[in-house]
Amino acid sequence: MHKLTYLMAAFTLGVSSLWAQEPVDFTIELDKPTGKISPHMWGVFFEDINMGADGGIYAELVKNRSFEFDEPWMGWKKLDKSPEGTFLIVNDTKRKGNARSLHVHKPFPEKLGLQNEGFRGMGVKAGEHYSFSVNYKLSKPGLKMRVELVNEQDKTIGGGTLSLVDNAGWQTASVEFTAAETTAKAKLNVWIEGTGDAAFDMLSLFPKETWKNRPKGLRKDMVQILADMKPGFVRFPGGCIVEGRDLATRFQWKKTVGPIEERELIINRWNTEFKHRLTPDYFQTFGLGFYEYFLLSEDIGAEPVPILNCGMACQFNTGEVVPLDELDPYIQDALDLIEFANGAVETPWGKLRAEMGHPEPFHLKMLGVGNENWGPQYVERLDAFKKVLNDKHPEIAIIASSGTDPEGERFEFLDEKLRSMKIDIIDEHYYRPPSWFLSGAARYDDYDRKGAKIFAGEYASHTTRPNGPGRSTWEAALSEAAFLTGVERNADVVTMASYAPLFGHLDGWQWSPDLIWVDNLQVYGTPSYQVQKLYSLTKGTEIIPIKRNGANVIGQDSLYASTVYDEKSKQLVIKFVNYNSKPVQANFVLNSKKKLGTSATKITLANADLNVANSFEEPLNIQPKEEKVSYKGKRLTETFTPYSFTVIKIPVR
Fold first, then answer.
1. Which H helix or E strand runs over 189?
2. H-only helix segments in 421-547
3. Is 372 tagged catalytic?
4. Cβ pair 546, 556 in contact under 8 A
5. What span, in angstroms and rounded, lies between the C-alpha atoms of 95 and 76?
6. Stretch 437-465: mean pLDDT, rounded?
7. Which residues contact 74 (CB under 8 A, 6 or more apart)?
């Protein structure tokens, strides 16, 4: 099993024309399933990279709303020249998680103005409603606040006025208004009028229409494109941000729950990771925190799969580790997370979940310990986690890292160690060129059926990288479709799979390719998105053998295939990849005592140009084309177009 064999590489990389006009015969054994398919087989991997959270799915439009960035004025500028001391950034360490606030001393009647640039601008739409809110504390009454959205020509396109009531302590004021036009690059002006003294914090602007219309919630279109996949799981919060560049900047879930205004901001580790894509204004405010991740998973019918730091920082950066005798707080974080997700409302963390609005448990079943960690230092720390978790929560499956690569010394070492530890699920990652995916369709055919399950946690075919937005090509996606026939054929071993990264922002990406691209107004799925979506929507419940000349279809003559049966819809599903420049005619002989319906559904992704990609201008270059087809008897003949991925759904009576 450890000697990974990739069969038929010579076939997959070339194009055969010798048999192109001759029908190719396949046999499907419908009555002889070889294994069950996990109900959460195909899912999504979320990491706050490429402005995926702040500036992305978290719908806040104001950047640095609480002045907590390393440079407190980042994202803001003063619109008027004011006397020294008019604006002060005050750091009050008695305020939990959010020490800084803006103090305004205004003894003169002339108005003062601030402008926020948003996340590469603010995307607003004509006719939509927006809500501005601010936390404030008056020390000398007499001030009021007026806000306005302005377009790229500084024309006002919406706004309103807030009255600031004299009252002891911090309080909140808000105003709603409607935008008069659509623009991706709006800015927010905040005018302070009258005379008086006040402190301001959490200056915030959200669209009213968020996902499920939750106040200060998630961007609706970005959640919807995930929901459309019907993913079986959501893995969060990453990714390398779990580790941090050092342990001080690791992801700590407890700082991401509770009141939004008390969550402690940290720098995003992708802020300065790549010299070619520096993003010094990239931070994590944790408005999208662990509670919101669990809620998102529940909303779209997906299993939550949180990943926690194991006491190791990113080994590509500092490689810091916590001493083994100081690991207990990290393990306690795992125990407390399980209590937060599943505990009764009488428990401390279950009580917090209930106070946040969700008294029912989230039914957590899996937990990842470490992300892309490797070496004996990882095994030692994982073993400490495992002993405690197995003892206190044997119902929770542990997911462990197999490192950064799908082969090589690191992989072989970890694969052996994790299996000897009897880890439940091993997380394998592969960022490789199309040739690797084509030649790897047999990767899991010889894996141990009785050993650990596999999580293909991060996969992506790279034609070039980094190659900019929109360059997730059809070549890459079709090679993934071919590889995934092997994943699906071995779904009794591979229990989960997800592409990575998930989101890329047109104006704020660091890494590409990505599954879904967004700007401040739009969202579209790449060809790779269309491929995984088709797999997810037709995942089936049982693996059905499909053979050519008695062998699995893993690249002979550049053809790939897998079949499943879906007990819920009573359908046989054939997935077929033609990685050739010419059409292929195929005959499918179905060996079964069951009766087949004569009317089937055929869904095709295809393009003769492997370099084609989707884009904001042409988001549907690669999109599924669905048609009704008819078959008679149990011998089916079908023609597959060049460079195509086809799904055929046949009713079974």
1. strand 183-194
2. 434-439, 474-489, 527-537
3. yes
4. no
5. 22
6. 95
7. 63, 64, 280, 281
Q: How far apart are CA 133 and CA 200, in angstroms?
A: 11
Distances in whole angstroms, Cα of residue 272 to Cα of each of 57, 267, 269, 464, 510: 21, 10, 7, 21, 9
CATH number of 76-207: 2.60.120.260
Q: Which two tokens stand for residue 154?
A: 């500084």
Structural tokens at position 370: 């470490």
**What residue type is assigned to position 25 of the chain?**
D
Place of tokens 């927010």: 188
CATH (residue range 54-59+211-277+286-329+362-538)? 3.20.20.80
CB contact at 8 A, 174 and 145: no
Q: What CA–CA distance (Å, rounded) separates 314 from 132?
A: 38
For 312, phi then psi, to 5°, come to -135, 130
Position 581 pLDDT exceeds 50: yes
Q: Is the pLDDT of residue 10 over 50?
A: no
User: 408: phi > 0 → left, psi -120 to 50 → alpha, else beta; which?
Assistant: left
SS3 (DSSP) at 277: helix
pLDDT reading at 15 higher than 90: no
Tokens at 148, concatenated = 């306005």
In 311-378, DSSP assigns E strands to 366-369
Cβ(12)–Cβ(475) under 8 Å? no
Cα R_g (the chain), whole angstroms: 27
Two tokens, residue 561: 């295939």
- C-alpha span between 495 and 327 (Å, rounded): 30
Cβ atoms within 10 Å, residue 560: 28
Residue 652 DSSP code: B
Rounded (10°) CA dihedral 228, 234, 240, 241:
100
Query: pTM (2 decimals)?
Result: 0.95
pLDDT in tens, 336-384: 999 999 999 999 999 999 999 999 999 999 999 999 999 999 999 999 9
Amino acid present at 432: R
212-259 per-position pLDDT tens digit? 999 999 999 999 999 999 999 999 999 999 999 999 999 999 999 999
By C-alpha distance, which of 149, 171, 147 is closest to 158? 149
Q: Is the pLDDT of residue 467 over 60?
A: no
Burial class (CB in 10 A: 0-12, 13-18, 19+), 431: middle
Closest CA to 479 of 558, 541, 415, 567: 558
CA 86 – CA 487 distance, rounded (Å): 63
Average pLDDT over residues 559-578: 98
Continuous segment of H or E residues that includes residue 354:
helix 348-355
Q: How far apart are CA 248 and CA 264, in angstroms?
A: 13
Domain parsing of the chain, residue ranges = 9-38+543-651, 54-59+211-277+286-329+362-538, 76-207
Share of the chain above pLDDT 70, in %: 96
- Answer whether 119's CB lies under 8 Å from 62's CB: no
Does the domain formed by 9-38+543-651 have CATH 2.60.40.1180?
A: yes
The CA distance from 464 to 482, in Å, is: 19
* Chain center to CA of 468: 18
Higher pLDDT, 559 or 598: 559
Any bridge partners for residue 600, and if so which? 629
Indicate the average pLDDT of the chain: 94
In single-letter form, the type of residue at position 400 comes to A
Active-site option among 47, 372, 407, 488: 372
The whole-angstrom separation of Cα 621 and Cα 614 is 5
Length of the chain counted residue by residue: 653
Q: What is the pLDDT averaged over residues 4-11?
A: 39
